[in-house]
Amino acid sequence: MSKATVKERARYWFDNTMARGTAALIGWLALVSLGLIVVVSALTMWLTPDEALRHQGWPGVLWLSLMHALSPGKIAGDAGTAPFLAIMLGASLGGIFIVSILVGVLSAGLRGKLEELRKGRSRVIESGHTVILGWSEQLFTIVSELAKAHASQHGSVIAIMAERDKPAMEDAIRARVGDTGKTRLVCRTGRPTEPADLDLLSLSSARTIVVLSPEQDDPDAHVIKTLLALGKRAGDHPPVVAAIASSRNMAAARLAGGPGVHLVDSDDIAARLIVQSSRQSGMSVVCMDLLNFDGDEIYLRRDPSLAGRSYGEALDAYATATVLGLRAPGGVVLNPPPDTVIGTSDEIVVLAQDDSLIRRESGTAPADERHIVPATAPPPAPERTLMLGWNGRAARIIHYLDGYVTPGSVLDVAGDHPGAGAGLADLRNLTVNVKECDGTDRYALESLGVGVYQHVIVLSDDRCDPRHADTRTLMTLLQLRDMQATLGEKYSIVSEMHDENNRALAEVTEADDIVISDTVIGLLLAQLAENPHLAEVFGHLFDSTGSEVYPRAVEDYVTTGVPVAFRTIMESALRRGETAIGYRLAAKSGKPPHYGIVLNPDRSRPVTLTPGDCVIVLAER
C-alpha cells in the first residue's frame, strides 16, 4: 500500500474534526470569519489608506470588517472611494456565505438536541418512584391502578422504559388512561435488557420495578434477560415484579431473578380463572374487584389483642374490615379452620377500604338463627362441558377442569384449530371428544346440540390478531345467546377476551362471565408493585390447593326475600368451614365498575337478597 500523501493526511484530519459535531463546525466557521476579517482589513489598509485613517486605523478597520461580515446590510450605508466600496462589498458577500452556513449549522444542531430530548435519553432524577420496564396491554391497567393508589400522594412518579418513541408512549397512555391526577409519568426510550439504558432510571432509589412481557415473539426470553440485567447491576436492588407468559419458563425466570423477584404466571392464572368462572359465574369479576384500587384492598395487620383467640372469633373483631386468613411464621393460610388459634406473632389478613380506617368492633349482634339455611351438600354428578375454540392454554384449562369434576364427566372440544385435543394425557375424570366446528357459524353451533351441556367455554383463537380474535368471540357469544333465547336452553357461558374495552360490547351478549386475562394480570402486577409483601397472599388466592374465592348461591346460606344482616351470612358460611367476604346482586351484574359485587359490607346492616344473588366466600373445593 502506498504511503499517504500530505494532502490525504490533511483531508483525513479535516474529516475527523468535522465529525465532532456542531461545535467543530462552528469552530471552523469562526476561523474562516477571522481569516475574512483579517484579509479585508489588510486590503483596506493597503489599497485605501485614506479611508483607513478616516476609520481610526487598524482597530476601526477591523471592527468595520467584522460588522460587514456579520451584517451584510451594512454596505448600504457605506460611502467612499470605489476601491474601498469594492473591498467592503467583498466582505459583505463573504459574510453572507458565513452567516448562512452558521444559521444552518445552528439549526441542525438545535434540531439534533431536540430529537435527543424527544427520544427520552436523559437520566431520571427521582427517588421512591415505580419503574415499569417493557410495553404491553397490561401497562395501561397498571398505570391506571397505581394512579388511583397514589391519588392522595404528592410527588408520585411512574417511570416507564420501552423500545418505543417517547412521544408515542405518552400519547398512548394519555389516550387509554387519561388524567393520572397527582401521579407524574416519565417515559424513556431504551432497551430494558441493556444495563446502560437501565442506568437512566435511577433504579437504586426506586420503590418497585415491574417487568412486563412484551408484545413480541418469545416474550419470556426478553423478561428473563431483563431480570438478568437487573440482577447484575450495582447498587441497591428494590423489589421486582415480573409477568411470565408461559409456565414452562417459570424455573428459568426464578433462577434469573433470584429471591427478590415476585413472578406472576400469566398463563396459569388465566387458566384457573377460566375454569373457576365456568363453574361459578362471576368469578373473574370478583377477582378484579379484589385486585383493583377502587374499593377495598387486602392488608396485613398485627393485632396482639387477638392472640389466643380462634380464627372463628376473629371474624367479628373489626367493624370496618373483613378477616380473610392468617399469616403465621410458616406462611399464609386463607380461610383456616374456625378453631385455629391465633399466635402472638401471627398477622391477620384483612380486607378493608384503607389501612387507616380499620377499627375494632365494640360489640356485635348475634346471628339470626331463623334465617340460616342448614348446610346441604348435593351429591356430585357427572357434567357435560363444551369448549368452543382452542389456544395455547386450552390443555392446561382442561387439566384444571379435570380436577374439579366428578368421574364420568364429558368435555367436547369444538373448533377448527389444528392443535385441538393435543397434550391431554393423564386425565382422570374427564372424557374428551374433539369435533370440527366453526364457532362463528350458527348452523355449525346448532349441530352441536348445545342444550345438552351445563357449561360452555369460549376460548380466544391465538392464531388471530387479538382484536380479530375478540371479534370472533363476540360473534360466537351472540350466536349462543340467540340460540338460548330461541330454543329456551339454559347453560352457563364463559368467554375469554383480550381487550377490556370489548367488555362493554360483550355485555350485550349477556355472557355469564368474561375473563379479560390481560386486565387481571395487570391488576395483580399493580397490587404487587404497590404491596410486594402481599405476594404470598395473592399466591394462595390463585392457588388451586387450599381455599379459593367462590360466588355461591345465596339460597344455600340464608333465607331470601327478607332483610338479613351480613353477620348472619358470615355465621352460615362459618358453619360450612367457609369465610364470607361479600355478595353479588344479580340485578346489578351488568353495571360497571363493580358489576354488582359488594365486598366487605357492613355486617350489621340488613340486606335483602333474592334468588340469583350470590354469596362470595373463601372455601375449599
Structural description of this entry:
This protein is α/β, with parallel strands linked by helices and 621 residues long. The chain contains 20 helices and 22 strands. A 6-stranded parallel beta sheet has the order 3-2-1-4-5-6, sandwiched between helices. Strands 13-12-11-14-15-16 form a 6-stranded parallel beta sheet. It has a 4-stranded antiparallel beta sheet with strand order 7-10-8-9, covered by helices on one side. Helix 17 links the parallel strand 15 (492-497) and strand 16. The longest helix has 37 residues, at 82-118. The termini are far apart. The chain crosses the membrane at residues 21-47, 84-110.
Topology:
Elements: H1 6-18, H2 22-47, H3 49-54, H4 57-70, H5 82-118, E1 130-133, H6 138-149, E2 157-162, H7 166-176, E3 184-189, H8 195-198, E4 208-211, H9 219-232, E5 240-244, H10 250-257, E6 261-265, H11 266-279, H12 283-291, E7 297-301, H13 311-314, E8 321-328, E9 331-334, E10 347-352, E11 384-388, H14 394-402, E12 409-415, E13 430-436, H15 442-446, E14 455-458, H16 466-487, E15 492-497, H17 503-506, E16 513-516, H18 517-530, H19 535-541, E17 548-553, E18 563-565, H20 566-574, E19 579-584, E20 597-599, E21 606-608, E22 614-619
Parallel strand pairs: 1-2, 1-4, 2-3, 4-5, 5-6, 11-12, 11-14, 12-13, 14-15, 15-16
Antiparallel strand pairs: 7-10, 8-9, 8-10, 17-22, 18-21, 19-20, 19-22
Helix pairs in contact: 2-4, 2-5, 4-5, 6-18, 9-10, 11-14, 11-18, 12-18
Keywords: Ion channel, Ion transport, Lipoprotein, Membrane, Transmembrane, Transmembrane helix, Transport
Membrane topology: Multi-pass membrane protein
Organism: Microbispora bryophytorum
